[in-house]
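FIELD: query
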Amino acid sequence: MDLPEMVWRGRAAARIGFDRARSTVIPAQWARRDLARVLAPLPEFAGVRAALGCGGWADAHRALAQYVATAPQRFVIAPHARSAVSNRILAEFPDSRGNATAMADRILAGEYDLLGYRALRFDRGADVPGRAAIDWGYDPIHQRRAPQRFWSAVPYLDPVCGDHKIIWELNRHQHWLVLGRAYWLTGRAQYRHACLEQLASWMAANPPLTGVNWASMLELGIRSLSWIWALNFLADPDGDDRSPWIVDLLLALDRQLTQIEHNLSYYFSPNTHLLGEALALYVGGRTIPALARSAHRERLGRRILVAEIARQMSGDGGHCERSTHYHRYALDFYLLALAVARITKDAVASTFEVAAARLGLAARLLADDRGRLPHIGDDDGGLLLPMCGRAPDDIRDTLAIAAALVGRPDLRVGGAPEESYWMLAHASLAPTLELSQAAPVRNAIASAALAETGYYVSRSAAGDHLVIDGGPHGYQNGGHAHADALSLTLALRGVPLLIDTGTGCYTSDAELRNRFRSTALHNTLIVDDRPQSIPSGPFHWTHTAAAAVSRWRTNSRFDYFEASHDGYRPLEHRRHVLALHGDLLIVADLVEGTGNHAVAVHWHVDPRWHVEVRGRRARLSGDGGGVELIVPHGSIDVSFGDAITGLGWHAPVYGRVEPATTIRIADRGNAPLWMVSVFALDRENPVIDVESVPVWAEAGTLIRSGGIRITRA
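FIELD: result
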C-alpha cells in the first residue's frame, strides 16, 4: 500500500466514522429544504429557493418541472422530444407499443424479471400487494432481508443478508426505463404514476446512508443513471402531480452522487465498478447543471474515465477482467459517456470515441454472426440499458450504437434494434444512426486474435464461431475470472454447441459459486481431478494458472492454435486446436511431465443438442445439424443434471441453473500423455475412425509430437 492509498483510505475511514457517529445521534432522514443548499447558485433557481424556504414544495416542483422541460437538452432524451422520438420508434418498430405494454403491465402487477429469475415479487408483508408496496431490502429467492444499519456496517457479502445481487438489481431502478418507454409509446399515465410512487416508497425506506442500498458505489451509480432517465421521461410542467417528486429526486440524486464521490472504488474494485461510478458522476454532472457540485463531478468523472482507458483496456481493445460480460459493460459505459459528451459538446468526446471504437471492435470479434457473446468469465446478467427485454448475451443493440457513434458500420450485426433509437434519440446523434443503417451489413468477418487480452477467435464463412481462452487469469485479484485456461466455446452456423456453463451465483451459495468457476465445468482438460486454479472466497484465488500461447495461424482454409499453462505444475498442459473450416475441429491435449495420472477432457453441450454415445463416438444432433465426436482412446460417458458429480449443468444467466449435457472423456497413463477429440462437422464427409499413430524421426520420437490417422468414408 503506497502513500496516496494510505492517505485516501485514512480520509475515507475518518469520513465514514464521522457519518456513522452522527447517525447514532441524529436519525437519518430526508429534508426537502436541503435542496436549496445543493442547488447551483443560478438566478433561474431564485424562485425555487424561495419556495423551498417557506415549505412551498408544490411551487418549487412546478418551477423545476418547467426548467427541466425547457432547458437545452443535455441527455439522450428530453421531455420536449417525447412526440418525435416516440413516433420515430413506433414507425420503425410497429410492435414496440405492444411489447412495451406487456413488459410494463407485469411491473404494475408486482412481477419483476431480474437476472435469471422470473416473476419475482418484493411486496412481502404488504396489506395490499401492489407496485408501491415494495420491500427494498428483501431477497425473495432466499427469503432473507438485509439489516437496516449504517451502510458500512451492512455485511452484504454474507448469505445471511440473502443474495445482494437480487436486492441490488431491483434497486438499480432500471425497470423505470421499461415504465418510461411504455409511458412515451402508449401515453398511459399509470406507467408514469408507478415510477413516482416507487420513488416515494424508495426514499421512505432508504434514508440517507442507511441500509444495503447505500453500500455499493456502483449500484448507486447505476441507480443515479436510471433516475436521470426517469427525470427526462417523466418531467411535465403541465402534469397534475400529487407530490413534489422532482424536489425529492434531485435531493436524493445529489446525496447519492456525493456518496459516490466520497467512496470511489479506487482501491476496492478498480475495474468496471470504478468505471460505472465515474460514468454516473460524469453524466450526472454534465446533464444536470442545476446541482451545485455538477461541475466538480463532471471533472472528476471525466478524469477517471480517461485515466482508466489505459489502465483497464488492453492494446487490442479487450477489457482487463477477461470476462466477455464485463467487456460489454465497459463498452456500454463509454458509449453513454461518448453520447453525452457529443450532446454537450465536450472536447473529451474524441477520447471517448477512441476507447469506444477499440472496445467495439473487440466486442464484434468476440460475438458470433448473430450478435451473441459466449459466456467467458463471470456473467451477472446485468445490463446498462435493459428496456426492451433483450437477453444479456445478445449485444446487437450495443454494437449498433457503437457502429453509429464511432462511424464503423461494420460493427453492426443486422438492423439497428430499438434500444439504439433511444440512446441516439438526440438530434445531433440520430443522423449517425441513419448513416450507419444506410451502409450494407457485413456480418462475416475473418478469424483474428485479441492476443494481449488472450482470446483467439476462429470463424468460418458458414457462421461457425470458435473462441479459445489463452490469456491471463483475470485482472488483479481475478475476481471475475474462472479456472478456464485453454478452454473454448463453439457455435455452429450460429447455434451454440460447446458452451461455457456460466456463473450461477456470487455469494449466496459458496459451493455453487466454486463449482461453476471450476475447471471441471469448462471445456478443457483436468488432471487427477485437480482444478487449474484454486479459489479463496467468492472473488479471490490462492493458486492460479498462467497460460502462454506459442502459435496462432489463420488462413482461409484453417486456423491453428497452440498454448500451454502451468496450473498442474510441475506438470504442463499443452493444447493444440486445429479448425478446418466447415469440416473438422481437432483438439489435442498433451500432459507433459512424469508419473501416472488420471486425465479427463470435458465438453459441455448446449441444451439444444441431444447426445448419444456409442463406444468411442458421441453423436450430437440438434437444430444446427449433426456433429460426431470421435476419440482414438479413452472412455466416453455423459452426465445430465448429475447432483453427485456436479456435471451436466449450466447457468444461462445469473441465478438460473438448469440441466445440460457434459461429455467426459477419461483415461489414465504415464506422462507424457495425449488426449485427442475430433469433431466431424461435415455430414457429407463423415469420419469413420480416429487412431493414434507414433511420430518418428531419425533420432527417435519427436518431442511434444503426436499423430492421429483420420479415416473418412
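FIELD: remark
The longest strand covers residues 596-605.
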